[in-house]
Amino acid sequence: MPNVLRSLPRGLRKVISQVAHKLALRVPGVPELVVGPLTYNQDGLATVHNCDFLNEKRFLEAYQIGEKLDSWGGSQIQWRAYVACWAADKASRLEGDFVECGVNRGGLSRTVMHYVDFQKLDKSFYLLDTFRGFDDRYISDVERARGITNHYRYEECYDFVVRTFEGFRAVIIRGAVPETLPQVNATKVCYLSLDMNCAAPEIAAAEYFWDTLVPGAAIVLDDYAWQKHDEQRLAFDRFALEKGVMVLPLPTGQGLIFKP
Prior knowledge:
- This protein is α/β, with parallel strands linked by helices.
- Helices cover 38% and strands 16% of the residues.
């Protein structure tokens, strides 16, 4: 529809938008909306603003590689992936290694690797996960009541991930965070991605790596503002306050923290 609207005369487009706007306002419970043409409408995020950056050749290639690994359950997460790539690109110019806690089938980390041409960097990429889903010991009663264990479906994928990253400078660490954190042999970290869908292991990882994060390093919080994940948001708000920093909430549902 957006492409069709763009081909219409400006006056007609305006009338159609106004009518659509009024119709939208008639839906009970729906707030006043910005009506298209939308340039992006995926993964819980819609906008009318310019999204040409998502068509960058380097990003398209990287995203297609990650998407083929079937990490995202059929969802299209281009904007979230781009945020991670942006943070990784910044990190590639800093000292230290990359760490991702919450890998699943490796879609995001593989996307990031391609985007920054990781093999040419003098860095290691540590990938930590159970590779079979949640560890029930670290899910709070509140999180369980919100249904996060029902919302996500994971399958055993360790062997798949090992094959995927064969030949790359990746260190695959199987097991539950926080127990596996001491296996990360990195004295400096420049990129930390946290996507474990529950608060306890993510906060444990953030605390563990905080002192090894170099100035300017980013922590990418995948679930920070997502529905059902209030426990993570509140926990990271407290964490940020204690560290004297702020979480940047993003419309993708992610959050960003930068090490001073």
